[in-house]
Specification:
The complex is a heterodimer of chains A (287) and B (287). Chain A contains 12 helices and 10 strands. With 287 residues, chain A is of the alpha/beta class. Chain A has a domain at 247-287. A 6-stranded mixed beta sheet of chain A has the order 6-7-8-3-9-10, with helices on both faces. Chain A has a 4-stranded antiparallel beta sheet with strand order 2-1-4-5, with helices on one face. Chain A is globular and about 65 Å long. Chain B has a single domain (10-231), classed as Rossmann fold, CATH 3.40.50.300. In chain B, 37% of the residues lie in helices and 21% in strands. With 287 residues, chain B is of the alpha/beta class. The chains are: A alpha/beta (287), B alpha/beta (287).
Chain lengths: 287, 287
Amino acid sequence: MSIKIQELTHTYNPGSPFETHALKNINLTIEPGEFIGLIGHTGSGKSTLIQHLNGLLKPTSGSIWIDGTDITKPGIKLKDIRKKVGLVFQYPEYQLFEETVAKDIAFGPANLNLDEQEIQKRVKEAMEMVKLPYEGLKDRSPFDLSGGQRRRVAIAGVLAMKPDILILDEPTASLDPRGRDEILDQIKTLHRQQQLTVILVSHSMEDIGRLVDRIIVMHQGTVALTGSPRTIFQQAEMLEEIGLGVPQITHLMKSMNQRGCALPEDVFTVEEAKEVILSYLRGSQHA
Amino acid sequence: MEMNQQKPIIEVKGLTFEYRSHDEADLIALKEVTLNVSKGEHLVVIGHNGSGKSTLAKHLNALLLPTAGTVLVAGMDTKKQELLWEIRQTAGMVFQNPDNQIVATIVEEDVAFGPENLGIDPAEIGIRVTNALHRVDMSDYRHKAPHLLSGGQKQRIAIAGVIAMKPACIIFDEPTAMLDPSGRREVVNAIRNLNREEGITVIHITHFMEEAVEAHRVVVMEDGQLVMQGTPREVFARVDELKALGLDVPQMTDLAAELRSEGIDLPEDVLTVEEMVNHLCQLKSKN
C-alpha cells in the first residue's frame, strides 16, 4: 500500500503569536512494502508528519494519498484510514486501560463491527506476532505486566487492526537492550512475512542502519535528505550539524580513514565491521 | 579521581524491598543489597527492565523506604521522617521525562522552585539560579518558557532545578531515554561536568552502555541484587556474562571481542572509538 504526500504544509496556531510552521511543503512517496527510517532531532516535524498519515492531524494545505485515496478530502471516514494505517505512539503502554490483556487488544477490532469469533482470532494472532503467550496472559491485567510486555500489548492492539502500513514512533525508548532487540526483530519479521509498509521513527542510528531500506531525514519541518542508509550516513558532518549522527561503527571507519586507511564507510553493524577489519588486517599480512 | 575515602555519602546496608501486590505474592524488588558510594564518585548502574535499578534509586532520597535494612544519606537514616527534607536536599533526583519535572512557565522560576520551598532568602535564590543555569549551559534561556525548549534543554533545566538545591549527590534515573542524539550528548556532558568540575557525587542509571564508559565504577543489577561491579574496563570486559544477562556492552568492546575470537591481538577492555582506532593502527604498523 503506497503513501504519496504532496505539498504538505502544517502550521500550528496560525495567525496567533504562537504560529509555528511544523511542516513546510513536504513531497514524499513511499512504495508498498518499503521499510522507512524517519530520523530528525526533537522538533524537526517527525511526529507532526506521522500524525497526518492516519488522519489525526489535517494539513493546513496539501494532500496525502493512501493507496490511491486522498485522505485529506472532506467525507473521508477516519475509520477506513485507521484500518489501513496503524500508528504506535511513543510510550503506547500508557494508553492501555482495559481489565485484561485480551480486552485491550480487542478494543480496536471490536470497533470495526467484526463478529466475536473473528475478534478473538485477531487477538490471538496479534499476541503471537509480538511473542506474548496467549493462554498465559490473555486474562491478566495489563497493569501487572512488565514494561516491555505492556509495550507489546499496545503494539498487538494496533496489529489486531490488520493495518497494511505500520508506523512506530520510537517503539523501543527506555527498553533494555534485550527488550529493544526483541521488538525490533519482530517488526522486521512482520515486515518480511506480511509485506507491511513500515515507518520507524528512531533516535538510534545503529537501529536505523541495521533495519531500514531507506532513510528520511527531517529538519525544521522539511525533508532534508532521503536515501539508502549507505548514502545518508556518508553525510556525517551534515547529520551532526542538524543534531543527529552516524552509527558508532561508521564513525570508527571514518576515523580509521582519517588516519590513512582506505576502509569502506558504508558499514553500520559490528558483524560487518568485523569482516572489514579482518580483511584489512589480514590483507596486509599477505602483502 | 578525588574521593573522600573516610565516609561514604551513601551507605546501603542489607536493603530489601517488597512491593505489595493485591492478588499475587509480594514481589521482592531488592534482596539484601549492600552498596557504598564515595563522595565525588561517578557511579553508573545498569541492568535490564525490572532488575531493581529504579527501586534502588528511589531509596536513595527516601521516595521509598526499606522493608528491611538501612539506607544512610550523608549519615542520615532515610527512615527518620524528620530528616526527610534534609535528605532530599542532600540527594537530588532527575527522572526520565523532562515534561513531568517542570512546574513553572518561565525557566528561572522553575529553577527557583526548589530553593523557594526551602525558605531561602530571595537574593540568595537569584544567585543560585544564575549559577545553576550557568553550570548546565542554559544561561541564555533564563527568561524563556520551558515548553518551547528541546528535550535536552528541558532536561538540563530539570538538572539546574536540582543543582539550585545545592545537593552533594544527584541520582539520574535514565535521564536520556527520551532524548535525540544531540540532547543526549548535552545531558551527558552536563552530568560529567557536575561530577568532574563541581565534585557532585553522581549515580546514573542508564540503558546506554556508551554513557557508562566514563564512570569511575559500574554496578550491574539482576533480579534485585548486585551481580557485578568494577571499573567500566573491568565490567565490560565480561562481554559474555553481560550478554547472558540481556545487556549490551559498548559496541567497540563488542567488536574487540569478535575480533579477538578470530585471533586478532586486541585487549579485552577497549571502550571507545578512539582507543579502537589506536589499537588497529598499531596492529597494522606491526605487520
